[in-house]
Specification:
mainly alpha; 4 helices; binds fe (ii) ion
Amino acid sequence: MDIALETITLEKLIALLNMDLELEYSAAIQYINHAAVMTGAAYGDIIKELKIHANEEVQHAMILADQIDYFKGSPSVNVGEIHTSQENTEMLQQDLDGEEDAIKRYKLRVEQAEERKEFALAQQLRNILATEQEHAIDLKQALGK
Ligand SMILES: [Fe+2]
Ligand SMILES: [Fe+2]
């Protein structure tokens, strides 16, 4: 007899999407904060990018909240952890850490959605993942990595 791999329950998937949602809220707030406090002429271009990122994180939050509602969950109104600093490069590193964490989470989340044959959700998560990868590239560039 085959041993089927256990598919993630819908409840568990909703809980994970809610964690992702909370981290999208915190990413948006963190970017707004960093764009406001970052200083120096050399940082003008990345400051503009951070503002674009903030808007994109809000869009991700809206997509996740709609998906959670679609699955009859309650979209969280809690905000995840936010990091800030008085140093430009430290802020950029905090943002990059957040993006790398998001990339890891969304790769897993795409797989979990597909396990449940929730292909529309998986597609939305793939789009979010692609944006987080672009965010990470912008930050690495600004950090000279
Ligand atoms: Fe995001
Ligand atoms: Fe992002």
